[in-house]
Amino acid sequence: MADWLLAAGSFVLGVVGAVTLESVDYDGERRVDLLAIALLGAMSALLLARRRWPILVVLAVIAVSTPYHLLDYPHEATMAASLVAAFTAARYSEPQRRAVAALVAVAAVTVPVLADEASGGSGDALLGAGWLFMAFFAGLAVRFYQNWTAAVAARVEQERADEVERRVAEERVLIAAELHDVLAHGLAIANVQASVAAHLIDQLPMRGHESLREVSSTLHSLSDTSRATLHELRAVLDVLHGGADGPTEPAPHLGELHRLVEMAEAADLRVDLEADGLSGELPATVSVVAYRIIQESLTNVVRHSTADHATVRLDQDDRRLRIAVVDQGPARPSAARAAPGFGIVGMSGRAQAVGGQLSAGPGESGGFEVWATLPLPDAWPVPS
């Protein structure tokens, strides 16, 4: 549509300019007739293909304008189409064809000058040549600016992608550390219980019975295996941390939600917690992930929202745990100007780590909403 309007505007300007120059008998040029209008129309129609074939279009405009000038029609009437064609040759030609575009620009300047001189003109075409050069270099300037801004945007996007990848890697290490805490707790309990049971069997008067010996051997093996697994978990976690010391605090879980509520209220954010029907028997990993999602969501409300109230809803069935954190907003003005953060990326990564899904975005009430669904495999109680 833009090219159609540009072509139409070029044609109208050309015809109006030619008629106006004729009316004042400008330099005694030839009267405008249907041939002149047809030539002006042909030059303008060629502009419709300027983006697809910029070099061919400017050559075609030169070819059509040459007989127009030789017939001594008002020369300035061709300037609109010629300027657009020269600009387009510089703006849209492919990089390997820029040399050709430069030659075309020279032709676009030389041909009208020669045509004007051949028709006995006064040499005023040199002024038009200057305008054509300006249009050509303006096209180069626009091309350079757009290429530069595209390169800057691509670099910024790549830097953000690298930062997202780094944050995701850090989040995975943290998830691994929390998973280690959960598994280590369970394995430690299993190790202690197996050791105690094996010791009690070894103290029985009938400990020499074959079946008791097998049970005792199995329990000792279970104790040894759980102990070895704990060491392997520690070694894997050390590799993920690159040899650095990992978190020493136990992983939080949904049983400690009151801590999040208290911290939010200390920041002047009232939190309504709706957890009716929530079972106390949840997979430990799911409980940890749910806690972290709620923690990050409430942190975002405190940092980025003007709301003084947020709602946390938890409900579950036999297959999934559903989480919703909703505030009434609106966002702080500073949050709209700030670059996007990585909190949602981290929450999504945690949800995906346990096979769940997470979505976040503006809500119908004008605030922000976070929704997460975490699948529940065969639930087991969190060790106490």
Write the layout of secondary structure elements.
Elements: H1 2-23, H2 34-46, H3 54-70, H4 79-92, H5 98-118, H6 125-202, H7 210-240, H8 257-266, E1 270-274, H9 284-304, E2 309-316, E3 320-327, H10 333-337, H11 343-353, E4 357-362, E5 368-375
Parallel strand pairs: 1-2
Antiparallel strand pairs: 2-3, 3-5, 4-5
Task: Write a structural description.
The model is unreliable at 379-384 (pLDDT under 50). The two termini are 70 Å apart. Strands 1-2-3-5-4 form a five-stranded mixed beta sheet, with helices on one face. By secondary structure, the protein is α+β, with helices and mostly antiparallel strands. The chain is elongated, with a radius of gyration of 39 Å. It has eleven helices and five strands, in the order H-H-H-H-H-H-H-H-E-H-E-E-H-H-E-E.
Q: What is the gist of this entry?
A:
Helices cover 63% and strands 9% of the residues. It is α+β, with helices and mostly antiparallel strands.
Identify the quaternary structure here: single chain
Major sheet details = 5 strands, mixed
Unreliable segments of 5+ consecutive residues: 379-384
Taking all residues together, what is the mean pLDDT?
Answer: 76
SS strand fraction: 5-15%
Number of strands: 5
* Shape category: elongated
Tell me the radius of gyration: 39 Å
* Helix proportion: 55-70%
**Total number of helical segments?**
11
* Class from helix and strand fractions: alpha+beta
Distance between the termini: 70 Å
Instruction: Summarize the helix and strand pattern as letters.
Output: HHHHHHHHEHEEHHEE
Main sheet strand line-up: 1-2-3-5-4
